[in-house]
Amino acid sequence: MSHLTHTPALEPTQDNTMILNMGPQHPSTHGVLRVLLEIDGETVVRLMPDIGYLHTGIEKTCEAKFYQQVVPLTDRIDYLCPMTNNLCYVLAVEKLLGLEIPPRAEWLRVMMNELTRINSHLVWLGTHALDIGAMTVFLYCFREREDILRLFEAASGQRMMTSYFRVGGVALEPPLGFFERVREFANRFPSRVDEYEGLLTANPIWMMRTRGVAKISAADAIALGASGPTLRGSGVDLDLRRDLPYSGYQNFKFKVPVHQEGDVFSRYLCRVQEMRESIAIVRQALDGLPQGPIKADAPKVVLPDREKMKTEMEALIYHFKIITEGFAVPEGEVYQAVESPRGEMGYYVVSDGSAKPYRVHMRSACLANMQTLPIMCEGRLIADVVAAIGSIDIVLGEIDR
Amino acid sequence: MALSPAVTQLEQLKGHPAVARLLTANLDAIEGVKFDREEMTIYVRRPMIRECCVLLRDDPNCSFTFLSDVTAVDWFPSEPRFEVVYHLFSISQKERVRLKVRLSGEMPALDSVTSVWPAANYFEREVFDLFGIRFNGHPYLRRLLMPENWEGHPLRKDYPVEGYR
User: Fold this and answer.
1) Is residue B71 part of a domain?
2) Is residue B4 scored above 90 in pLDDT?
3) Where are the domains of chain A?
4) Average pLDDT over residues A281-309
5) Distance, in angstroms, between A364 CA and closest chain B CA?
6) What average pLDDT does the segment A222-248 reach?
7) Contact by Cβ (8 Å): A8, A46
8) CATH 1.10.645.10: does it fit domain A58-400?
């Protein structure tokens, strides 16, 4: 596997090559990724990603916050799928606490999580197509994304930084008429995916730009730690929602799209088909949504309802205690992974028994996926680098944390 | 779902494929085990980490071919100060195991596993950057997230949250 470990250097290694700097301010690097290319004419000889421009030290900040105060920070890691990060973090803390979640909260979480996945894939599809030169798709995708953001705003009060999932359940019961709006969206959405596919899937220009471009084999993808559509596009059938179910995903029926070619086109197909599966999960969640409470019965951990605080002394005391002192979590450590739109998003949370996490580590799917970039691009043209970066769907906030 | 106490007896956990594989190899590599909250942790002696990783990756009963994550925890001021944590995943068995190596605070260093899983490249660079733990045999051990000329390692517990001003 020696061909997979790279030793980047800033000097050209051959007489006929030069170093070209791409980014960090470049529209197709999806944020502040800097890529150093050693090129021979138009051909990429070596590719060296340079990251860290968006490093904010979130892991360090988490250590200084109470457990419940970390939830809003997790939104800001991956700003395209905030709910997935919320979910992963709260599942980890709930596992540390040994807390059981009422079924309605679990189903709501699954529903919101799948809407988030669609939201994230829409941004990816729009920008990826824009990079390769298909302008129209971008406008179509953002039209549907706006619908989803409005749904998030209705449920959580925020469009992007939702912080909707809390330790022990979800923050609020969704407002009246919310589920009808979701159902209306779920009915409308499959025909919209047909629209995107009509513009791209059989489009000869799109196929020429994506088919056989930036290939990676299954063995290389596994060895480099790639996950999510980047791995499934290379023919590895792995989806944590199905294989290691969390948050009640075992109650849902869905297919996991896998494609064998390992090129940009098969990763594109994986994600587009995933959107259809996600909307099917949303439908199932709507149909089978159980009645009942949305928060666990754990007064020392979960904030009481406003109404109770006005009438019950204990509720007021617990509220005051949780806000001012946090809640203590038993000693231990937990690694919880979820299938984020980009792959395996994992939270490793260590508790020393106090009200603040001793250590929070985020396993970033993008960081591992980005290691596949050199293998994908070397020996190919510069224009394919843009297609490759788009196809692994990186979010720099998650890479740099 | 009440929490049950952690199991730390090696005798009770012999049946776990990863533990069994490391025991049959007879390397005396296991320092301790822990089964807590449905998660398996194996404490591995520092010089043995690379061999253990190769064994667990190549054994057909384990086949931990996927390295999920490498990170570290700083237990300052107690000794051994650092724990380097590996999360392995088996795609065929759908199983996870956590390996841990304890390191002292004086010049913490251990063998790199980049030759076992190339995925460890960035993970180990990140740990080196933020904790100052050296990985011997890493092909390019440079800072990953912080600037090249940064002083100190931010995720160490003796590094202030607001940084040095």
Assistant:
1) yes
2) no
3) 2-50, 58-400
4) 88
5) 9
6) 90
7) yes
8) yes
